[in-house]
Amino acid sequence: MRVRKEGLGAILVIAPLILITYLQSLVTNSFCLFKISIGLPCPGCGSIRSFLALCRGDFLESLHFHPLILLSLGIIIYFTVKYAFKIEMLSKKMEKWLCVICILLYTIVFVVRLWLYFPHTEPMIPFKNAVWYLILQMGD
């Protein structure tokens, strides 16, 4: 089996990121690189817990952890089918518009979640051992 150059490049980028994420999750108990480095939750924070709750059949808890989990799963399925099976389902123009709409939706939901839940409700609790916090504390 022959690996194309693009595939090899993607593997060389993704594999170290997965390894780093896994190792840092062992130390910090979090997979979110954004939260670990900055200390603040990212727009996707809670997605893994949301997916796990969905797998258990707890739909309301799933929506609490991340209200856009079904959209996230739809995006993952769409691009998996598109690139794994080389099936073009939408035009490039339609894909771009859907990406813009998704970015806007995630941004709006992120701001609303910060407003409602930050800093007292999971998953929007800041991480006090983040790299950024530690750097700031060194200056004190």
Distance between the termini: 56 Å
What share of residues is helical? Answer: over 70%
What is the percentage of strand-forming residues? under 5%
What is the overall number of helices?
7
The average pLDDT score comes to 84
The coarse overall form would be globular
Number of strands: 0
Low-confidence stretches: none
Radius of gyration: 18 Å
Counting helices, strands and paired strands, the structural category is: mainly alpha
Task: Provide the domain count.
Answer: 1
Please trace the helix and strand order, writing H or E for each element: HHHHHHH
Largest sheet: none
Compact description:
The protein is mostly helical. Helix content is about 70%, strand content about 0%.
Any overview of this molecule?
- With 140 residues, the protein is mainly alpha-helical.
- Helices cover 70% and strands 0% of the residues.
- The protein has helices at residues 5-28, 33-38, 47-56, 59-65, 69-85, 92-117, 131-138.
- The longest helix has 26 residues, at 92-117.
